[in-house]
Amino acid sequence: MRLPGSLRARVTVFCVAAIALALAGMAVAAYAVVAHELNDSLDLGLRREATRISRTISTDADVATASGSCRYLTAPSCVQVVASDGQIESAQDEQQLPVDAGTRAVAAGARPAYFSDVTLAGYPLRMYTAPLRSGTAVQVAQRADPVDTSLRRVAYALLAAAAIGTALAIAVGVAVARRVVAPVTTLTAAAERVAGTRDPRQHISVTGPDELRSLATSFNIMLDELDQALTAERNSRAAQHRLIADASHELRTPLTALRTNIDLLRRASRLTPDQLDDTAAGLRTQSEELSGLVTDLIDLARADDPAAAPEVFEDLRLDLLVADRLCAAERHWPAVTFDAELTPTTITGVPVRLARAVTNLLDNAAKFSPPQGVIRVELHDNALTVRDHGPGIPADDLPHVFDRFYRSATARAKPGHGLGLAIVEQVAELHGATATAAAADGGGAVFRLAFPQDNPRSSTTE
Fold first, then answer.
1. Number of helices and strands (H, E) in the chain?
2. Judgement on whether residues 295 and 332 belong to the same structural domain of the protein
């Protein structure tokens, strides 16, 4: 048999089938018990009648008077005494109980008493044949059709009860199926709603057994994970679009300047040597600015790319790395003085990324320092501090100094494109460090790059 396709229909069918089978089993058992009790009652009555007769009959005359009439089959029982040769010794009636070899054997004492079912004048009888005295047997019979009638009535009553029970089973099965399947229906509706609206923030609340509550909880967790994934994807796309838009804007300025100077070089024959030198210097400066901008964009894009190869961390001496970057900064910014105090420090990190972050901090301080200004660089307790004596950072700009392409009003006249400090913060996040900026006492700004004390290899060497 092919079951219905829907879960509700299957649960209903299973419930109805289970209850119907239980009712059928109970009906069969009840019928068997009633039939057994009625038949036992009939047999017990016949046996008692035979015992009574055997006790009361002592002479042939008694046999004749004790025998029940079977003429109309209305007496409580029919009694017939039979000799071993098959002769009926009791009073002769028009209706005689059948005598066979079994009856003669009982009369002769060769067979014990027994029950049998016979028919007399079209009526079913239950007959008991038992020994009476030496050479004779007594047959006691009673109509069995009242028992059959009672059994039919019991059967009809049981069938009616089974039919009513089956109808109730159908109603119960439908109710149980609706209650059991309701949480699954709710889950299905929620899944279809999420699929239709593409909004995973619609949680569901399901009550019921522990298994269904667990299923609902897992479904809600899945929706949360999906929501987070979609949010991350949207944020990533927004960041990419913003990066492309900002990069396009920032690239436009150096490219325009390059195009202008190239147009001037096309008229080189009309320019004086000093003008040619200025144009060549401008081209160098603009190409360096463009190269730096492209490098910064590549670094930012690589760090934002989840498919990029993982960074390789290694043990390194942070104080030696900072000292190397200080030497490069002194060559690049000869107009300022770098005053350094570096404590030997070992950490686990990515040398190239850390070198870029340190260089950006030093370049940022030198860019805003006045001529002959002093920049203080300290490395203590896993924290690198760079302090300048420039114009400082306005309070309104402090929350945004590490934003990409952000340049305050005081910085717009300075060279740069607003990505250096963003890279510093990105490198800090990569190493579990913290990058902060603040206004320094007495003027200027102080930047701090603090590495966690629980860095796998962070330590201070005396």
1. 9, 12
2. no
DSSP state of 311: P
* Cα 284 to Cα 318: distance, rounded to the nearest angstrom: 32
Same domain, 356 and 443: yes
Q: Please give the residue range of the domain that contains residue 66.
A: 7-151
Burial class of residue 422 in the structure, from the number of CB atoms within 10 Å of its CB (0-12 exposed, 13-18 middle, 19+ buried): buried
187 torsion bin: left (phi>0), alpha (psi -120 to 50), beta (else): alpha
DSSP of 91-108: ---SS-----HHHHHHHT
Tens-binned pLDDT, residue by residue, of the chain (462 aa): 444 556 667 777 777 788 778 888 888 888 888 888 888 888 898 888 888 888 876 554 444 444 455 544 445 578 888 888 888 876 555 568 888 898 889 888 889 999 998 888 788 888 999 998 888 899 898 888 888 888 888 888 888 888 888 888 788 777 777 776 676 677 777 777 767 776 777 666 666 666 666 767 777 787 778 777 777 677 666 666 666 666 665 566 567 767 777 776 777 667 777 777 777 777 776 676 666 666 666 666 666 555 556 778 999 999 999 999 999 889 888 999 999 999 999 999 999 889 989 988 998 899 888 888 899 999 999 999 999 988 888 888 888 788 876 666 555 445 556 677 888 898 899 899 999 999 888 888 999 999 987 765 444 444
Give the CA count within 13 Å in the CB-facing half-sphere of 313.
12
- Residue 325: CATH number of its domain: 3.30.565.10
Show which of 303, 336, 364 is a domain's final residue: 303
Task: Give the DSSP H or E segment for 349.
Answer: strand 345-349
The residues, ordered by sequence, that sit 6+ positions from 211 with a Cβ below 8 Å of its Cβ are none
∠ at Cα 438 (389, 371), nearest 5°? 15
Backbone phi, then psi, for 78, in 5-degree steps?
Answer: -105, 130
Predicted TM-score (pTM) of this structure: 0.46
